[in-house]
Amino acid sequence: MTTAAFGVHSEVGPLRKVIVHRPDMSLKRLTPTNNDKLLFDDILWVEHAQKEHDRFVTLMRERGVEVFYHQELLAQALEATPHAKRNAVEQAVTHLTVGPALVDAVREELSTWSGKDLATHLIGGLTKEEFDVRGFDTRSLVAASADPQQFVLPPLPNSLYQRDPAAWLYGGVSLNPMFWHARLLETMNQSTIYHNHPMFTGEDFSYWYPPSGDEADFDEEDFGKAALEGGDMMPIGNGTVVIGISERSTPQMIEHIALATFAAGAAERVIAVNVPKRRSYMHLDTVFTFLDVDKASAYLPFLETAVTHSLRPGDRDRTLDVRPERGFVDAVEDALAISRLDIIPTGGDDSQQAREQWDSGNNFFALEPGVVVGYHKNQFTNRKLRQHGVDVIEIEGFELGKGRGGTHCMTCPILREGI
Ligand SMILES: NC(=O)NCCC[C@H](N)C(=O)O
């Protein structure tokens, strides 16, 4: 039993604490013209998405999991210190986001807002109409040229997928540099929470990225060059981390994580596996998730091309020993010291498998070994899992899945036991 307040020691051990984001204003901002840019494949019926999400939260709470809402944590963190609010406003409102002519005025105004209102708009975006910039039309081209619905601050609808911008590996968290522009500011909100919320300040945990864990290390221009997202990062247990080299996560960043976790003694092996760079595969957890200590769901076409390397500490300080593996599953079996990882493929014929993979049919979230939550619509896959002895709890995901994410994507575990 873990005694620390935070730490994620496996993918399937008993889940104690998790952060999620209830669908909100940011999803109401999606329109048929902006949904692609905001990485959603459709617009959502938000009230229904909320019901689906509430059911997910209720079933976790019924099982004793402590569930925290991202927006509430952000609101509380913003109120925790004057620095928190000032820093969050300065990071979100810059010469690049609102233009140099408006930056001081917007910062000044937002600094007077309550943590609750500010959190709502840091996630939900802020339109020109909501932030009355009319007085600035003669001073700011951004103000003068924007129509009332245009965003002064962008909405962050992918906050729904809490897995990606901050990810725990054993006793530390990585505040991730996101690949797509539409998600960059999500990490700023995570940083505000971890550095200022009383639940986290004073607790003993590491920052795997940025290396110093320092808030000042966030530079939105650097973020365009590095990329790492939590959907690719899995602390599978036994001192091993699995990370996908995907559309969203680069080998350079995987080296950073390996060096940081090795130096702290938190991990001794990183298994890096290639994930084809395409929308439907975007992270490792869209094609592979753990279900039990020795069971995993996988989309077989991914496994066929899964070039794999293991990274271990090198013979000198801050060096790595990188070796090719025979196969991804072999490497995981070896790392977990199990004779066989039961791979349960996506259900149905080839086209049904492709359809269910697209609908998050390989994206399960474990509450304890062998008990997972997934979308109801993936009937062929869910049936198969049950045949292999996995308890699949279903939630509706018609609306929640429209951004291409399932239960694993929507959750950021912050305390989970080992296996
Ligand atoms: N871990 C995940 O696979 N997260 C899903 C992220 C979906 C989001 N619309 C995105 O494209 O980033």
TrEMBL record:
Pathway(s) of this molecule: Amino-acid degradation; L-arginine degradation via ADI pathway; carbamoyl phosphate from L-arginine: step 1/2
UniProt record, GO biological process: L-arginine deiminase pathway
Any GO molecular function: arginine deiminase activity
Cellular localisation: Cytoplasm
Active-site residues per Swiss-Prot or TrEMBL entry: C409
One GO CC annotation: cytoplasm
Catalytic reactions on record: L-arginine + H2O = L-citrulline + NH4(+)
EC number: 3.5.3.6
Domain of life: Bacteria
Name of one Pfam family that matches: ADI
Assigned keywords, A-Z: Arginine metabolism, Cytoplasm, Hydrolase
NCBIfam families: PRK01388.1 (NF002381)
Family (UniProt): Belongs to the arginine deiminase family.
The protein, known as: Arginine deiminase
Gene source species: Streptosporangium roseum (strain ATCC 12428 / DSM 43021 / JCM 3005 / KCTC 9067 / NCIMB 10171 / NRRL 2505 / NI 9100)
